[in-house]
């Protein structure tokens, strides 16, 4: 009796990368390690946070352009994959969770920004895929454009914005401030500000031009800043150890309007997608049922 | 660290109310999800409970989105910063990201509704626990 021959071994290919969650997770981990290493290297070379961010954006633009030229279809499938959105969400949630437990700030870290950039690009690609934009898809469009708008606003602020903090005594005026978080010095354009007096937890500020002419004056307190030519002057919490001094935070956020638009887009989009669209569908179905 | 003084008056009330409403909706969603898990998969009873779980999860997600937005705008008004400044706000962000994942899991081909319910239950327990712990501190 002859034994039957063994069936030939058939190599079963795994799912493609855009459908393969473990491979995506490995790639995301590699992506984080890459930007952690880049951050360390750039900081060692003396790059400021702004310079590091410019390198990140330049690299992303170069990498994105190259991938579009070489593997546009592959990139499109990946960025529009729901599995990839799930993988990204898991990584972002884990990152924020670990940062919260370890009481670390990750918002300004390069690797976290690189994760957000991938998420925003995915969202925009998915939005592009869902054309044409009918009223039924308006909610989807708004929700998926929102993260990209918020990220663009934040990046604009970090590239062209101002963050500075200074502790002043009454009568002292400044036009050059030390940057916050290791960023470079801030030069106020064509004006300076003086702390006039301290009244409890409030400070009276005066904005002066080059000829000592008063341009603006306000008593600021927590939650009630002075705004002048796009710059916000915020009262920081008073230091009980230094009652004669007042800490003032100076901020300029040029992308704030984009961030606010992104927030509005997210909320309106959610309401449209979750509540108005099902209502529209029900109404349409009822109309079609009628004789 | 900028500080932990909350934004003033009504704005803070709205922000905290949205956080609480978001978590409350997610709690209802989790209760419905738990009941759905106790039914036979595919039965009409389970399908209704799964649909209810998704509806409440979406409402909770909207509440958390509102809390994130009001938190960011309140922080901006207060400090000139948009990021979450308090541990509670950070837990809301974690919950938002978890339910971003859960809502997408519902749309992954081949995933059963039960996978999304289980993911939602785990996320709800973690995020609500962290948020309540941040309140207690």
Brief account:
By secondary structure, chain A is of the alpha+beta class.
Number of DSSP helices of chain A?
Answer: 6
What is the overall shape of chain A? globular
> How many DSSP helices of chain B?
4
Instruction: Tell me what portion of residues of chain B adopts beta-strand conformation.
Output: under 5%
User: Total number of β-strand segments of chain A?
Assistant: 10
Task: Fill in the keyword field for this structure.
heterodimer; A: 291 residues; 2 domains; 4-stranded antiparallel β-sheet; 6 helices; 17% strand; globular; B: 137 residues; mainly alpha; 4 helices; 0% strand; elongated; disordered N terminus
Can you tell me about this structure?
- Helices cover 52% and strands 17% of the residues of chain A.
- Chain A is α+β, with helices and mostly antiparallel strands.
- In chain A, the strands form 3 sheets. Chain A has a 4-stranded antiparallel sheet with strand order 1-10-9-8. Chain A has a 4-stranded antiparallel sheet with strand order 2-5-6-7, with no helix packed on it.
- The N and C termini of chain A lie far apart (73 Å).
- The mean pLDDT of chain A is 90.
- Chain B has 4 helices and no strands.
- Chain B has helices at 9-38, 44-79, 87-105, 113-136.
- The longest helix of chain B has 36 residues, at 44-79.
- Chain B starts with 8 loop residues before the first helix and ends with a helix.
- At the A-B interface, α3 and α6 of A face α2 and α3 of B.
């Amino acid at each position: 009796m002859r034994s039957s021959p063994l069936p030939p071994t058939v190599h079963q290919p795994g799912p493609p990368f855009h459908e393969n969650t473990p491979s995506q997770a490995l790639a995301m981990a590699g992506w984080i390690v890459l930007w952690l290493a880049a951050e360390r290297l750039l900081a060692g070379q003396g790059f400021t946070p702004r310079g590091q961010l410019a390198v990140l954006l330049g690299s992303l633009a170069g990498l994105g352009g190259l991938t579009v030229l070489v593997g546009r279809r592959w990139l499109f499938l990946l960025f529009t994959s729901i599995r990839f959105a799930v993988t990204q969400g898991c990584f972002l949630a884990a990152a924020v969770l670990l940062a919260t437990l370890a009481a670390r700030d990750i918002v300004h870290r390069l690797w976290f920004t690189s994760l957000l950039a991938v998420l925003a690009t995915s969202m925009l690609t998915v939005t592009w895929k869902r054309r044409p934009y009918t009223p039924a898809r308006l909610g989807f469009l708004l929700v998926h454009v929102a993260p990209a708008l918020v990220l663009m606003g934040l990046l604009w602020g970090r590239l062209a914005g101002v963050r500075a903090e200074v502790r002043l005594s009454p009568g002292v005026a400044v036009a050059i401030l030390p940057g916050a978080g290791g960023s470079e010095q801030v030069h106020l354009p064509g004006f300076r500000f003086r702390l006039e007096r301290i009244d409890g937890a409030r400070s009276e500020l005066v904005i002066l031009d080059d000829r000592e002419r008063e341009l603006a004056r306000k008593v600021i307190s927590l939650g009630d800043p002075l705004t002048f030519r796009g710059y916000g002057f915020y009262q920081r919490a008073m230091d009980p150890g230094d009652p004669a001094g007042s800490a003032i935070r100076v901020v300029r956020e040029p992308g704030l309007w984009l961030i606010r638009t992104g927030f509005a887009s997210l909320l309106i989009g959610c309401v449209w997608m979750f509540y108005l669209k099902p209502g529209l569908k029900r109404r349409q179905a009822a109309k079609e049922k009628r004789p | 660290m900028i500080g932990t003084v909350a934004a003033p008056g009504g704005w803070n009330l709205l922000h905290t109310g949205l956080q609480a409403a978001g978590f409350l909706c997610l709690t209802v969603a989790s209760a419905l999800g738990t009941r759905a898990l106790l039914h036979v998969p595919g039965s009409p009873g389970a399908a209704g409970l799964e649909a209810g779980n998704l509806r409440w999860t979406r409402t909770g997600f909207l509440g958390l989105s509102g809390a994130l937005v009001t938190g960011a705008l309140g922080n901006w008004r207060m400090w000139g910063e948009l990021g979450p400044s308090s541990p509670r706000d950070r837990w809301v962000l974690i919950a938002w990201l978890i339910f971003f994942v859960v809502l997408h899991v519902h749309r992954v081909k081949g995933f059963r509704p039960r996978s999304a319910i289980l993911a939602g239950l785990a996320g709800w327990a973690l995020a609500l626990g962290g948020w309540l712990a941040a309140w207690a501190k």
